[in-house]
Amino acid sequence: MAIQRPTRLPMEVEEQTEGDLGAKRMVVNFGPQHPATHGTLRSIMEIEGEIVTAMELEIGYLHTGFEKLGEYRTYNQTVTITDRMNYLSPLCNNIGFSCAVEHMMGIEVTPRCAAIRVIMYELSRIADHILGVGLQAMDLGAFSMMLWAFIEREHLYDIFEEVTGARLTTSYTRIGGLMHDVPPNFDAKVREFLKTGHRTIGEMEAMLNDNKIFRDRTIGVNVISAQDAISYGLTGPLLRACGVPYDVRKARPYLGYDSYDWDLVTHEGGDVWARYRVRVEEMYQSLRIIEQALDRMPEGPINVGDPEVIIPQKTATNAPGGGMEGLIYHFKNYMFGHGVCPDPGEVYFATEAPNGELGYYLVSDGTQKAYRWRVRGPSFFNYQAFGEMCLGGSISDVVSGLSSLNIIAGELDR
Amino acid sequence: MSEPTEPDLQQRAEDLVRERFHDQVVAVGVHAGQRWIEVRRDKIVEILKTLRDQLKFEMLMDLTAVDWLNQGRLERFTVVYELFSLTHNGYYRVKAWVPEHEPEIDSAFEVWKAAPWAEREVFDMYGLHFRNHPELADGRMRRILLPDAYPGHPLRKDYPLEGFGERYDFEVHRRG
Fold first, then answer.
1. Can you state the percent helix, strand and coil of chain B, rounding each to 5?
2. Which of A152, A317, B69, B161 has a CB 3.0–4.6 Å from the CB of A326, allowing a cystine?
3. CB neighbours of A161 closer than 8 A, spacing ≥ 6?
4. What would the pLDDT profile of A194-252 be if each residue is shown by its tens digit?
5. Cβ(A378)–Cβ(A392) under 8 Å?
6. pLDDT at B2
7. Nearest to A63 among B114, B146, B161 (CB)
8. A292 CA to chain B: closest CA distance, Å?
9. B145, B150, B158: which to substitute to probe chain A, counting the most A Cβ within 10 Å?
């Protein structure tokens, strides 16, 4: 049986006969359409017996051209593009992007806006992590974890839907504020989730922590050293699972994260198990942050007072509720050369998305459209290290490792 | 020695590059409290290596490029390196100018393992060649996001949002 090998693969493949399968090398294609990739990723592995001896990763199946598109959209329009990047936690992308533009313009958001953003950010983090853990467990055979995770995420998406009007395409932030305030029952709904979410995470822990299959397939699997992780630019749970205490929320606080009482989670080992532990612990910390933010939720406006930046509400533009002034500001906001126009210059601003450091590099030429808009998607850098993590491991550990990275193809390929 | 604040760290980084590579520095800049240094491309790897070793910029957070077509800049392209120091908790940006007539620069893969894919993306989007890149195919850069046979480099400013590189060979389905 001659094995067809991909043309560019730098691997030696020998002729193989039916009789000595396993004795010689074999090339296995994994993805892009494979349920365990949870997205459109492709890896081509060379295996010897069951041991992975070489790996080539191919990405780009979900490339959407966001960066090009962002150069042709105003800053507020670009917020809608960011929804589609990390589709497990779109609010994180919205908030990160708005924070980057505000940093560039020197805008400080109102306390109420910051508190709402923190709550939404941490809820998204839980939605991302709980599904990440659930899918990781499912890949290793614990199917009920995935269903439990989806139930909790459904509760979260209900909250998102009530707040933003959409489950996925949230587009909740505006430069200098938010689309609108939270609904009246927001506090009660989130507090209810704090209870159910806490219970579900606890139940998932009870099912997985001492589960022999889960432990055997995660401990010591897909290990990466802290030094390699740093060199590869890994961030987020992957880096903290190597024992490196780096979290943007602690290191370079934004939105007042330094005023909340929470702990930085790290774990030793750098394996799949450590990543699982970091994600679970982080969800508890997120619940702590949300509770504090709800307790202190300040009253007041959600938008900054600058009418040059903020798009007026419909009620301010439409007679009889509003008037001419609102209409003029609305018009000015959308006229070319007006509205949100940062001074010429460039800025790199990072927030701690569920998967790691989500950085936006913005170059402004003084108009209302970004001259260059670059997204540093954490998945892109995290996935690059995957090949090295898998080398020398068993082929079944590839699945375990891949789900522990929680690669989101929308953010990987942008 | 106490921990330097980010402005101190960036000042030290600037001084270091100016001292060691004084003939390479083109300009320095600052915007919204973030500082960067613009250098020639010739010794970019040595500059990055020096910054990594001397000032502990252990991480390459981002590597990208900007096209300055018809902006009256020194050259057409800049390659932007966003460096981060875990030890000192500070960023620093190094920008290398790359001319249009010879769009080449040395690869930073020896300095950080994060570089190869980001460099392939820069090639994909801007057509800049990275010399000594570890994943060359027959001496040429490989695309990463777009298909191998894709015409053009879409993030260049002379590549329109719609039009160039479009496919016309799709079958047209009509109703009725």
1. 20, 25, 50
2. A317
3. A167
4. 999 999 999 999 999 998 888 888 888 889 999 999 999 999 999 999 999 999 999 88
5. no
6. 53
7. B146
8. 27
9. B145
What confidence score (pLDDT) does residue A2 get?
Answer: 44
Would you state the pLDDT for residue B62? 92
For residues A205 and A182, what is the distance between their CA atoms, to the nearest angstrom?
A: 32
Single-letter code of the amino acid located at A32: P
- Among A72, A348, A384, whose Cβ lies nearest the Cβ of B62? A348
Residue B164: list chain A partners with CB under 8 A.
none
Q: Which residues of A touch B114 (CB under 8 A)?
A: 231-233, 381, 384
Render pLDDT for A83-136 as a digit per residue (tens, 0 to 9): 888 888 899 999 999 999 999 988 899 999 999 999 999 999 999 999 999 998
H or E stretch covering B1: none
A361 and B82: CB-CB below 8 Å? yes
Question: pLDDT digit string (tens) for A342-370?
Answer: 889 999 999 999 999 999 999 998 888 88
pTM: 0.89
CA distance A130 to A152: 8
Rounded to whole angstroms, how far apart are CA atoms B35 and A116?
Answer: 31
- The SS3 call for residue B170 is coil
pLDDT at A17: 56
Interface of A with B (CB under 8 A): 8, 59-60, 63, 65, 67-69, 72, 103-104, 106, 228, 230-233, 244, 246, 251-252, 343, 345-348, 350, 357, 359, 361, 363, 365, 371-372, 374, 376, 380-381, 384-385, 388, 413-414
More confident residue, A315 or A361: A361
Does position A310 have pLDDT exceeding 90, yes or no? no
CB contact under 8 A, B34 and A347: yes
Chain A to chain B Cβ contacts (< 8 Å): 95
Q: Do A65 and B154 touch (CB under 8 A)?
A: yes
Contacts with A199 (C-beta within 8 Å, 6 or more apart), sequence order: none
Q: Where are the alpha helices (DSSP H) in A247-299?
A: 248-251, 272-296
Tell whether the model's pLDDT for residue B73 goes beyond 80.
Answer: yes
* SS3 label, residue B128: coil
State the smallest CA–CA distance between residue A355 and chain B in angstroms.
Answer: 14
Mean pLDDT in residue range A60-68? 89
In the chain, the amino acid numbered A100 is A
Return the bridge partners of B30, or none: B35
Measured between CA atoms, the residue of chain A closest to residue B153 is A68
Residues of chain A with pLDDT > 70: what percent?
A: 94
- The pLDDT of residue A336: 77
Model ipTM?
0.88
Which chain B residues have a beta carbon less than 8 Å from that of A374? 62, 64, 80
- DSSP codes of every residue in A63-121: ---HHHHHTTSBHHHHHHHHTTTSTT-HHHHHHHHHHHHHHHHT----HHHHHHHHHHH
